[in-house]
Design goal:
The structure holds 2 protein chains of 2 kinds. Chain A has 15 helices and 8 strands. By secondary structure, chain A is an alpha/beta fold. Chain B has 4 helices and no strands. Classes of the chains: A alpha/beta, B mainly alpha.
Amino acid sequence: MTKSLLARQAPLADTAYQLTVLTQAEAAGAQLPAFAHRLRESGLLPLQPTKLGVMQINVGKMCNQVCKHCHVDAGPDRTEIMTRETMQLCLDALAQTAIPVVDLTGGAPEMNPDFRWLVEQISALGRQIIVRCNLTIIVANPKYHDLPAFFARHRVRVVSSLPHFAAGRTDAQRGDGVFGRSIRALKMLNEVGYGVEGSGLTLDLVYNPAGAFMPGSQVGLEREFKQRLGREHGVVFNNLLTITNLPVSRFLEYLLESGNYESYMQKLVAAYNPVAAANVMCRSTLSIGWDGQLYDCDFNQMLELPVASPVRHIRDFHETTLAGRAIVINQHCYGCTAGAGSSCGGTTT
Amino acid sequence: MSTYYNPADLAKFGNITEWQPEMGNKFFAYYAEVFKEGALTEREKALIALAVAHAVQCPYCIDAYTTDSLQKGADEAQMMEAVHVAAAIKGGAALVHGVQMMNKAKELSM
C-alpha cells in the first residue's frame, strides 16, 4: 500500500506548494484563464452563498485505504481526527439552525471512535444524515460489521465510492482487492435493505473517473452500473453520482507525475459551464474541518483555504455573519464547473 | 521534431469552419447529433467510433475516442474488443476478396 503525501514527505503535502502549482499554470499560458475571470464573465463574482442546506463535517483524515486520487491525502498513517468536544460544538451550531442535512466525511468517518455517538446526536436533532462510506471499512474489522444495521437504524443515507463496475479499474484507483471487498460490503448493505426498492434506505454510489478524464453522462453510467452490478454481483443501489476529480492533493500528484496536468486543466477550462458555476455546492454548504475550522468546501479545506469571514471556527458559528461572506475560489474550482457540473451530490445541472 | 500529426491540432478541429463556415457548421451540428444517445447509448457509440478510428487509422480519432470511451464508462476489455472488431473486419475484408481472386484464377485457368 502506498503512503500519504505527508508520510512520504512529498512536496505536495505542503498546501502552499499545491496552490503555487495551480496558480503558476495560470500565469504560464493564456489558455488557463483565472477562475475568478470566468466567474466575473458569468456575473458570479464575488461568489456568494445561497441558503445553507448542508453542514459537511470532516471527522478526520484517518482511513483504511490510500486511494490514488484522494484529495484529503487520507490513510492509515493520518492521525488527525475530530474530538467529541469539537463534535459537540458542531451539534450546538446545528441546533441553532434549520440546516436539514449533515454530511459526514473523512477519511473513513467510521474510524473516528466518536462517530456513532455523533450520528446518534444528529439523529436526535431530526436532521438527515449522509455518511460517505468507503465500503471496505465495513468488512475491514469485525467491529465494523454491524455498520449497515447501525446506519439503517438512523435512516442514514449511505454514499459510497465505486469508480467502476470492472474490478481492475476500481483497484487501480483505490488499491488491490478493494473492488472485491466493496462488493462484499454492498451485499451486506443490500441485506439490511439499503438500495432495495420500498425500503426507504438510500444507497448511492459515487463514480470518480480512474484517470485524467472527466465523467460521462450520469444517467448513462448509472444505467450501465445497475446492469453490470446487478447481473454480475446481484448488487442493487439507488443513484449513481458522478464526481469530477479536482486537481488537489494526491490527484494533483497523479496528474503531475503522469504528465497529464496541463491537458487535464485545459479540458476542465474548456468545459466551463456557467450554469454549473451558478449551482456550485459551496454556495449552500458549510464545511467543517477535524479541528473545527470552517471552510467553503472540503476541497478548500484540504488546500487550507479557510472561509473569508470573521467567523472561522465552529465555536463562533453565526449563520448570518457567514452568509455575508464571499466564497474563496482558486484554479481547482474549475473541477466543479466543468461539463454537467460536479458536487458531492453528483452533477449540478 | 516536425511531424504531420500534432496532438495539439485535435483541439483545433473546430477551426475548419473558418474557411467554410456553412459546411463546417453543418458538419459539426450533424456530428453532435450523431453522438447523442438514441437507439444506441453514448457508450456504445463511443466504442463504435473507437473501432472505426482504428480501421481508418486516424491518430486524432484514436486519441479522442479512447478518452471518450473512458469517459462514457467503458473499460479496457471493452475497448480492446472494439479494436478487435475493427481488426476482424479489416482482415476479413482483405480475405473475403480471396474469393474474387479464386474466381479470376479459375476463369483464367484450364
